[in-house]
Amino acid sequence: MRGLQLHLRSRRVPLALTTVTALIALAWALSLAYTDSATINARTASLAIMLAVVAVGTTLDGADGALDHTMAVNWPVRRAGHLLLAAATITALLSLSMITSTRYEPFALLLRNTAGLLGLTALGATVLGAALCWIAPLAWTLIAVLPMMAPSRDLKMQVAGWLIQPAGTTAATACAVVLAVTGLFAYALRGCPVRPVSETAPDR
């Protein structure tokens, strides 16, 4: 148990969890205050999920990059578990709104967008490191919520704007699954790039 506590603290998980909760609650509160709809629209939900996964992205790397690649720990399993627990936590927090009069729904859309954006964040962490993993989810989400993007029968639009397509849209679901699976396996197997010692050493 102490090992788990140290792991969570070294990854700044408590701070990230607080941030995720606050961001999801803020988006819900704004929707409650400024809209009359009982359902939070896909654009607002996607922005809230994107901000949540970006906060989670800060936990994908520890203070010691070399330690995160040591063979003494089964890191692939631990990394995969980290991502799956993050996805479950974000989805659960979004689902809490269903007991209120203004809801994040449908659940299938929340699950699809959380999995896809978290996979994209994990893929970014694998390539660029945790400090820059926010670039890809932020860019794709901002493109998807542009006014000219809308639910469409065009395959290219369904892929480019997969975040705002209705739940059950085959192309959007496939895009999210590919991102989720690719990000999960890439991050689980490789983790974040090992940073030079000069970047991790404390200032003197």
Your description of this structure?
- 64% of the residues lie in helices and 2% in strands.
- With 204 residues, the chain is mainly alpha-helical.
- It has a two-stranded parallel sheet.
- Helix 5 packs parallel to helix 8 (170-190).
- The longest helix has 22 residues, at 13-34.
- It is globular and about 50 Å long.
- The two termini are 33 Å apart.
- Mean pLDDT is 87; it is low at 197-204.
Short characterization:
The chain is 64% helix and 2% strand.
Helix-strand layout with pairing:
Elements: H1 2-10, H2 13-34, E1 39-40, H3 42-57, H4 75-95, E2 103-104, H5 107-128, H6 135-144, H7 155-160, H8 170-190, H9 197-200
Parallel strand pairs: 1-2
Helix pairs in contact: 2-3, 3-5, 3-6, 4-5, 4-8, 5-8
Which strand order do you get reading across the main beta sheet?
A: 1-2
Instruction: For the record, give the distance between the C-alpha atoms at the N and C termini, rounded to a whole number.
Output: 33 Å
Average pLDDT works out at: 87
Give me the strand/helix succession: HHEHHEHHHHH
Beta strand count: 2
User: How would a textbook summarize the main sheet?
Assistant: 2 strands, parallel
Helix content: 55-70%
Strand content: under 5%
The chain-level structural class is: mainly alpha
